[in-house]
Amino acid sequence: MLSIISFALALAATAIAITSAHLGWRSIRRSRQRLEELAESICLLRVSQESMERNASDARRRLSESDIALAEVRTGVEELQSRFEDVESYAAVCVPQKPASSGLNINRRVEAVRLLKEGHSEEQVAAELAIALSEVRLIGHLERNAPKPAAKRGRRVA
Question: In this structure, are residues 143 and 113 in contact, taking their beta carbons and an 8 Å threshold?
Answer without folding.
Answer: yes
